[in-house]
Amino acid sequence: MKKRSVFERMAAAPHLLWSAIFIIAPLLFVVYFAFTDRNGSFTLENILSLSSYSHTFVMSLGFSLIATTVCFLIGYPLAYCMARMSERARNILMVLLMLPMWISLLIRTYSLMALLDNGGLVSAFLTSLGGKKLTFIGTDAAVILGMIYDFLPYMVLPIYTTMTKLDKRYLEAASDLGCNNRQTLFHVILPLSMPGVISGVTMVFVPSISTFYISQKLGGGSFDLIGDTIERQFKNAVTYHTGAAISLVMMILILISLAVMNKFSDSGEDIIV
Amino acid sequence: MKFLSKFYIGLIFLILYAPILVVILFSFNESGSLSHFSGFSLYWYKELFRDGEALEALKNSLILAVASSLIATLIGTLAAFSIARAKSKRYQRLAEGVSNIPMMNPDIVTGVSMMLLFVGVAGILKLENTLGFWTMLLAHTTFNLPYVILSVLPKFRQMDKNLTEAALDLGCTPAQTFFRVELPSILPGVVSGLMMSFTLSLDDFVISHFVSSPDFKTLPLYIYNQTAHEVKFSMYALCTLIIVVILALLIAVNVAGSAGDSRMRKKVKKAQGVSVR
Question: For the residues A78-92, what does the mean pLDDT come to?
């Protein structure tokens, strides 16, 4: 059996090496760049200069919180309705829900833009109704709508999955004990589907707060969310130090949000779909 | 109630699909208008393939996806094996936790951090133009790894350990045991990890955006560049083609899956019938 354990350790080596070089080291580079200046000496300048970006942080946080909330309000009833369908209908709906997730985010954002574009179908329709020309691209609402549209399936899927796995006997017990439908929903189904809600919220919130593509396309190029700022710092700027500092702060912000959220959920286990 | 819920599902799915349908419809539009459909034409499809850049990007995407998913599957399967067999629980948690970092982190942070690694190392080694195919390969393999581990690890944990011990007792070398006994029983997990990596790699834009150079463009990067400044109808044609391919694949996988399911069910029934008799 001794040879065996040597083989087992050898098998771990490539992964450990890979993780050290390509996961841990890059994060250390982010920290290094965030705390150094152009000459490589230690400085807090980058972090302190972020106060001028506080508006960006607040706006990003606000946008992604709104998008996440709306996704939950639309997605939870949708998952609930889907879970109550016949098995055949559920299979079809499942494919319909998965298809947008497989289509690149670029394409989906681009197609939403096609629909909402000035001169697109929606604006042509509204113009024919009211006569007044409406510009939608470039507004806050367009960017938030883009987040909702792009990430809604990621909210529905985990909730739907936990609902279909839910033990039916709980529901029977609830109605036997005198719960009406609404009481069953709020006192039995909702608490039991919390793990799905938590992972759905995570899967909408994290990409929303870090997006740059949605705000570039639907914001008409005039938006500065955190993602846009980071993207510009790394693609156009001369040095990466400010960009690294913003990335670091965003990462910490997200970690805190996730920790807070996990605290609210009853089960302490991590949920990954 | 039943009607209301059907109506609600229909409404949300309609909204979800409306933009996609608009793109598909207007990719066949004769004129370059977004609100007026003047006539059916394949002009934008011809336009798309005229310069060959789209085909080049598709080729690049496929090469990258095949290479990165194969490497990730190899490393990830070995990693899952050692994690499942490790005696120390702390090591198990640590190894899993570290490989999950790219999955939990927003893509932009993963992309930016890898860019800093490549640029930083290139600076130390005094190299120029490091970004390109190789950096993309390394990045794609890295973000594929957790998905492979995630799909293979449960198979190792479900596996009957007595089989491994029996093989070793009967004189198999550790390598033989791995390839003849363990690999066949974890194969479904390996295959699904491979497929998932392949599609993730094909689909990735954000991480590639930061670790690529203009010389090596994948399909998402090509779409991004083309749509940066203006509405291009040839991109509608490209999107339509991609959507059709994805739809076909999804249906194929589903049909194959349900066929496999029913075959499995038949087998189970047969086995039950035998045991009852």
Answer: 90
| Residue A230 located in a structural domain | no
ipTM at complex level: 0.86
φ, ψ of residue B40 to 5 degrees: the values are -75, 135
Mutating which of A92, A106, A212 best tests the B interface, going by the most B Cβ atoms within 10 A? A106
User: Residues near A241 by Cβ (< 8 Å), separated by ≥ 6?
Assistant: A33, A34, A36, A37, A38, A46
Compute the distance between CA of residue A226 and CA of residue A45 in angstroms, rounded to an integer. 19
Stretch among A219-223, B38-42, B108-112, B206-210 having the lowest mean pLDDT: A219-223
Q: Examine residue A41 and state whether it is found in any structural domain, yes or no.
A: no
Q: Is A1 on the interface with B (CB under 8 A)?
A: yes
What pLDDT score was predicted for residue B77? 93
Assess A120–B contact: CB distance below 8 Å, yes or no. Answer: yes
Which residue segments constitute the domains of chain B, with CATH numbers given? Answer: 1-41+233-258 (no CATH), 58-226 (1.10.3720.10)
Domain containing residue A161: CATH number: 1.10.3720.10
Distance of CA B89 to the CA centre of its chain: 30
Phi, psi of A186 (to 5 degrees): -80, -30
